[in-house]
Amino acid sequence: MASVRRFTCGPMLRFTILPRRIYYRMDKTYGTFCGKHCNLQICPACLSRQNNKHSPLNFQPINSAPLSTLSVTTSFSTSKQIQCRRRISTNHMKEAFTLQNSYKLIEEEFSTLTEDIKKLTSSDKLELQNIAHYHLDGHGKSIRPMTVMLMAKTCNYHHTYDDSSILHPQRVIAMISEMIHTASLIHDDVIDMSDIRRGKPTVKALWGERKAILAGNFILSQASSALANLQNEYVVTVISGVIEDLVKGEFMQLGSKEDENERFNHYLKKTFKKTASLIANSCKAVAILGNCCEDVIDIAYNYGRNIGLTFQLIDDILDFVSCDKIMGKPTTADLKLGLATAPVLFAAQEYPELHPMIMRRFSQIGDVRRARDLVAKSDGVTQARILAEQHAKEAVRMIQQLKTSSSQQALIHLVKFILDRKK
């Protein structure tokens, strides 16, 4: 009898069929089994859907199973190629893994996160402290620290089967990720000359450019100090690379490639450095601090990388399809700044007249309006959405390679939340 050590009701079922490992994926052809049948567990919500006569599962409840689960037996013929294109339903998870419930999984560690960051960025210069705390008002979604904490729990469970706690150094990484993000927002608003952020005046608009730059630098210095106090050289190197990427990404944004074929690669590299690097390397850092193996560290990094790219692609789409009131900042801002994002680059494949506009950074009168109209007429937004979905699927594929836990499922749900977000 071949044994199955883990089972998830999600889109991918991971089996361990000794002496080989076989991965089951949604809408894919199943591999060949050497054993005759396998024991696994399934949740009551899935069990209630057993009315499908074509299901390859033969359900047999076992009295000794925990109340929350039921055991089933699945029979297969020896060396038989089994094809199953039945989509595995995850509708029952929608209630269980809302974003709010994801926060609840890390409530103990998350509840005082903002206050702890404020303590790290306190100063005897009251004005500097007020500027540093300005965006720490609790009105943001805090996607980055939440992702990092959920990844820490997922990695800890995968490594030790203990899903109950986040190590103190891992929580510090979550704080550092939010501090770096906050500093980058303050600096970005200076570079982009923005007056509105999250529906309220920017630091630059209230205190001026010089004080905004100094306050951003102050937050970064405090984040660097907290990082150094971890006394982990590997982690210091990883997180230090994030700040390097932010600067390089900003420089990449200042230019544009003349070669049309290189523009998209330039855009994706810039997007990684400016947005995805922070999430990817923060996830990598907590995996390192959890003493995970290199394979798990790579999984954590690639999940963060893909969810970060998804986040920015959706942000670029919303710049065209949302409105100022919903977004809390001006829309079509990228075009006004001379930036060609994914919807524009895809639209340029249909409307070549966009190419000279991209090169002159939409600087002539009427360029912004014309570019916006061409994007609306094209499949640019649709193609950008497809690309975002591809990165989202890759993020899910990555995290599903780790052992099933509530935090792992929350990370899967988080991908859907980012894909569906409206602001």
Quick overview of this protein structure:
The chain is mostly helical and 423 residues long.
Average pLDDT works out at: 78
Question: Which percent band covers the strand fraction?
Answer: 5-15%
Task: Give the total of beta strands.
Answer: 9
Highest-level CATH class of the largest domain: Mainly Alpha
The CATH topology name of the largest domain reads Farnesyl Diphosphate Synthase
Structural category is: mainly alpha
List the helices and strands and how they pair.
Layout: E1 2-3, E2 12-17, E3 20-25, E4 29-32, E5 37-42, H1 44-47, E6 70-75, E7 81-83, H2 93-96, H3 99-105, H4 107-110, H5 113-120, H6 126-133, H7 143-160, H8 168-191, E8 196-197, E9 200-201, H9 203-207, H10 209-228, H11 233-253, H12 260-289, H13 294-321, H14 324-327, H15 333-336, H16 342-350, H17 354-359, H18 367-377, H19 380-399, H20 406-420
Parallel strand pairs: 1-5
Antiparallel strand pairs: 2-3, 4-7, 5-6, 8-9
Which structural traits does this protein have?
disordered N terminus; globular; mainly alpha; 20 helices; 9 strands; 3-stranded mixed sheet; 423 residues
Structural features, described:
This protein is mainly alpha-helical. The protein folds into two domains: 2-93, no CATH class; 97-420, Orthogonal Bundle (Farnesyl Diphosphate Synthase). Helix content is 59%, strand content 9%. The chain has helices at residues 44-47, 93-96, 99-105, 107-110, 113-120, 126-133, 143-160, 168-191, 203-207, 209-228, 233-253, 260-289, 294-321, 324-327, 333-336, 342-350, 354-359, 367-377, 380-399, 406-420, and strands spanning 2-3, 12-17, 20-25, 29-32, 37-42, 70-75, 81-83, 196-197, 200-201. Strands 1-5-6 form a three-stranded mixed sheet. It has a two-stranded antiparallel ribbon with strand order 2-3. A two-stranded antiparallel sheet has the order 4-7. Helix 7 packs antiparallel against helix 8 and helix 7 (143-160) crosses helix 12 (260-289). The longest helix is centred in the middle third of the chain and has 30 residues, at 260-289. The chain is globular and about 55 Å long. The protein starts with a strand and ends with a helix. Residues 1-97 have low confidence and may be disordered.
